[in-house]
Write a structure and sequence with these properties.
By secondary structure, the protein is an alpha/beta fold. Helices cover 32% and strands 13% of the residues. It contains 19 helices and 18 strands. A hairpin with a 2-residue loop joins strand 3 and strand 4. The longest helix is centred in the C-terminal third of the chain and has 27 residues. The chain is globular.
């Protein structure tokens, strides 16, 4: 790690000159140049709410640099749900949020490396409803300090109803023809990616060695950008942590329209049921303008809160384990095809790295597919079997119970592994198999090489003590557990083995960004013991993947043919092929409108109609909620 930043002598603030000649003044953190809160688009306020990110006009920062030394707020999101799990996470929010952070080695890594550094652009996760670039203050600059030879860029993007609505109304205001159906958050991601490519050289980076990577919803977004023809050429490698090419990574235009209509009705900006789109283009534009004028007049916090879990239960397509109302929309323009078509050859022909964690399901295994209460670790065998019947129709309930047998797991862990495999692990395996087979080759030197990992380490510092499913020692390598290891965050590394694993993980990602192969470092980098284990390409004969965990002696290892768990993925492949059953319908806005100034609780009338759609067990639970 070198000398800690706080112990080094102060130095002058770094200055970066962007491609358009404007200049930024950052802050020096040891040997890292940090530029915090860099604007990459105009504030999405007023008429720009829901609109594509507007380019910044050329700024007069050539003489007097713009000070970018403080993190800007994360984008508006459900305030009542955001409880930072780790100290230092940012819990300030604003609709004016289109800013990014850049972390680069001092002076661009030195003259010998200038313009050659790999650039890593990270998209945070959070279900497209929460999270932000400012939270990465815990991560990104420390990873740069690890090796001093990479540029890390972390952008904000709009969230929830402010970022992921898509509809004919938005298209009508854009002139029709499908040129702008919505999904401003997806367009924000692309705008930030273009900014990073255009300005990579200002920080010592090589725009042709740009890795787009992300976790969870960020990983799903990366996979959608690899599908999008409008994002092609902006990045040369892709890495997806727990979410790449998952079935929940996109939604149809029909579902997107339902979500838009639901939000508009709940905000009292449109009637329910929604009237059909006027056939006359002028009439359609007028109707769209009226609805959007109303939505643009609502407080940002109100619209952001439509994404919280309580309100999501009322969505026409409720969030569950395999659906997301806020995912990118398959609009035929930004995302022209679905995951199935992408895996048959529609994804970009670039090197890809994809993986999942050993215990993905532990953090979000709920009592039912549309519930927001966690399954308790103390459930018994009878409750587990009841859980399978509640969430999977015949004959799938019996097949799930057999595949995740209580001879192999405790009841809770059987359910957790089933959900983790359904939602993340098996979509990851399925994607890896398809990507490895594309073009009939992944031989050395191929630009379609695939590298796969399984993160198996249970972080010591993140063993929570709240008594829930992530209680001390109980959560394992849960969803998101790998993030501090990817970014090599010293404060979370409690043992020599953890520090070794973090050094290796960051270097693998750095190498992949540079060369397209996690085992091939930049020519100036010394291959140390942390990455002495080669990371083999994935192929469909051996199923070899990197296990990002440690043996008792702290060394890394690979594993070939993880067939026992992969055989369970055959179950889920068949499940998807049979047509994943939709959850029960939920209450519609006509029955559940509220006074928009009156808070987030459903009315008694909406509760009553909500209950009508549930089975007897769910009905009892909701009635108990209503009475309390």
């Amino acid at each position: 790690m070198g000398v800690p930043a706080q112990m080094q002598a102060p130095r002058d603030p770094p200055i970066a000159t962007l491609a358009d000649g404007s200049r930024l003044r950052g802050v020096a953190i040891g040997d890292v140049d940090a530029y915090r809160g860099v604007p990459f688009a105009l504030p999405p306020l007023g008429e720009r709410r829901f609109a594509p990110p507007a380019p910044l006009p050329r700024q007069p920062w050539g003489i007097t640099p713009l000070n970018v030394t403080e993190y800007r707020p994360n984008c508006a999101q459900p305030h009542d749900e955001w409880v930072p799990a780790w100290p230092g996470l940012n819990n300030t929010f604003d609709e004016d949020c289109l800013y990014l952070n850049v972390f680069a080695p001092r002076d661009g890594g030195g003259a010998a490396r200038a313009g050659q550094l790999p650039v890593l652009v990270f998209l945070f996760g959070g279900g497209w409803t929460e999270g932000g670039a400012a939270d990465q203050q815990l991560y990104a600059w420390q990873s740069v300090l690890q090796t001093g030879d990479a540029v890390v860029v972390v952008p904000n993007y709009r969230l929830g109803a402010l970022g992921w609505l898509s509809s004919w109304q938005l298209d009508a205001l854009g002139g029709g023809g499908g040129n702008h159906t919505g999904d401003a958050g997806f367009l924000d991601q692309r705008a930030a990616l273009r900014w990073a490519k255009d300005n990579a050289a200002a920080f010592g980076g090589d725009p042709n060695r740009l890795l787009l990577f992300g976790e969870s919803a960020g990983a799903a977004s990366v996979s959608m950008h690899s599908i999008s023809p409008l994002s092609r050429g902006l990045f040369s490698r892709a890495a997806m942590q727990s979410g790449g090419f998952a079935q929940w990574a996109s939604k149809s235009l029909e579902v997107a329209q339902d979500v838009f209509d639901w939000v508009a009705a709940y905000a009292l900006c449109a009637p329910w049921p929604p009237p059909p789109r006027p056939a006359d283009p002028a009439a359609a534009a007028a109707a769209a303008a009226a609805t959007l004028k109303c939505l643009r007049g609502r407080p940002a916090r109100e619209l952001a809160n439509f994404a919280n879990k309580a309100w999501s239960k009322g969505l026409p397509w409720p969030d569950g384990w395999v659906n997301s109302s806020w995912a990118p929309t398959r609009d035929g323009v930004n995302v022209p095809i679905d995951v199935e078509a992408a895996l048959r050859g529609g994804a970009a022909s670039i090197p890809m790295l994809i993986g999942s964690n050993l215990n993905e399901g532990v953090g979000f295994v709920s009592t039912c597919r549309t519930c927001d209460d966690y399954l308790q670790m103390t459930i018994d065998a009878q409750r587990y079997l009841k859980w399978t019947r509640r969430n999977f129709p015949p004959p799938w309930a019996a097949r799930v119970a057999a595949a995740y047998s209580l001879d192999d797991y405790t009841p809770f862990w059987a359910a957790a592994h089933a959900v983790g495999d359904l939602v993340v692990h098996c979509p990851t395996r399925r994607a890896a198999v398809a990507l490895a087979a594309r073009d009939g080759s992944n031989a050395t030197g191929s630009n379609t090489s695939v590298f796969v990992y399984s993160f198996t380490h249970a972080p010591i510092s993140m063993r929570l003590s709240d008594g829930g499913p992530c209680a001390a020692g109980g959560q394992g390598a849960f969803h998101g557990a790998e993030i501090p290891f990817v970014f090599a965050v010293e404060k979370f590394l409690k043992t020599p083995h953890e520090r070794n694993l973090a050094r290796a993980t960051w270097r693998y990602f750095r190498n992949f960004a540079y060369s397209g192969d996690p085992s091939v470092p930049p020519p100036w980098a010394r291959l140390d013991n942390a990455t002495s284990v080669p990371w083999p390409r994935f192929d469909n004969a051996s199923f070899t993947r990197m296990l990002l965990g440690t043996r008792p002696d702290g060394t890394l290892r690979t594993q070939s043919g993880e067939r026992a768990r992969d055989d369970r993925c055959d179950l889920w492949d068949a499940y998807w092929a049979a047509g994943e059953p939709a959850p029960a319908a939920r209450a519609r806005p006509a029955a559940a409108r509220r006074d928009v100034q009156g808070g987030g609780a459903r009315t008694a009338r909406s509760r009553a109609i909500y209950v009508e759609t549930l089975d007897e067990d769910e009905e009892d639970e909701v009635e108990q909620e209503a009475s309390s």
